[in-house]
Fold each of these.
Amino acid sequence: MVQKKDKKNPDLSKMSQLLLSGATMLGDSCPDCAVPLFKKENDIFCPNCERKAVFIKDKEEIRKIEQKISLGEATNQLRDVLTGKITLLTNYLASVDTPEEINEIVDIIGNILDILQKIS
Ligand SMILES: [Zn+2]
């Protein structure tokens, strides 16, 4: 555990050193000392507390939103494919004559309609 520095006097020379080394100052500030957070490469950290800052809540939310979007896209794609297959099966159904074949195709169409209902 790093000892906390004086809250009112952030180490300015350290901050300018960080800027010179290619770090960028962020709009967010440290929840502990209110000094602006810095970002270097993929690390976000507080130069005053000398520790990394991780936006767990934000990251979690972003992850959830991303998941939702990709699931939505997958669902749309599935809907399109299944709708296409129903058209195909309907045409095929018109061309078959035996009760077994008719039964089989009707079953498959029924399954597809079930899935479509679930994802709509
Ligand atoms: Zn801090």
Amino acid sequence: MNEDYNFKNNISKHNVLIICLSIHHGNTMKIARVISKKLNADLKKPSEVKKDDLNDYDLIGFASGIYNGKHHADLFKLIKEFEMQKNKKAFIFSTASVKYIKMHTALKKELTAKGFDVIDEFMCRGFMNYSFIKYFFGGINKNRPNKKDLLRAEEFAADIKDKLSI
Ligand SMILES: Cc1cc2nc3c(=O)[nH]c(=O)nc-3n(C[C@H](O)[C@H](O)[C@H](O)COP(=O)(O)O)c2cc1C
């Protein structure tokens, strides 16, 4: 999975960065790969981002699986370290065992408080076999994200491109 990170698009014209953490099954990384390809975005883990890196980008995507009702704590930690932004555009995505968009609220609040303008968000189901789920069902959402999810993620990125004329 490491080769997915540090993926630097030499042809990037739009200055897009995606900060993604995908620790459970790599589910969110599957989505991140599709979106970063469509947007010619650079893709990094939170631990690889320095607060000044943001100056190089016009649009930042924040993503992870949902763990206990919200995005991964490392994203919140990183955002706290950032300087106040002046309407820097951002978008959010995630995978989770249920598609409940309110689980984005905490991250959206954190970003808005830091001066980000959150322009869009995307969510889909991801395979989960954590805790008792493993013993009773062998996991839920098998093979998710699937082809349809990846297509929807690509459409989401295409919408952003249209919206921002990039
Ligand atoms: C510790 C843990 C907590 C989780 N909590 C939630 C949750 O609160 N709500 C939910 O819908 N899914 C929850 N999930 C399922 C994950 O969000 C889902 O499997 C996601 O696709 C994992 O993404 P990743 O493979 O990119 O890490 C949890 C999974 C783990 C391992």
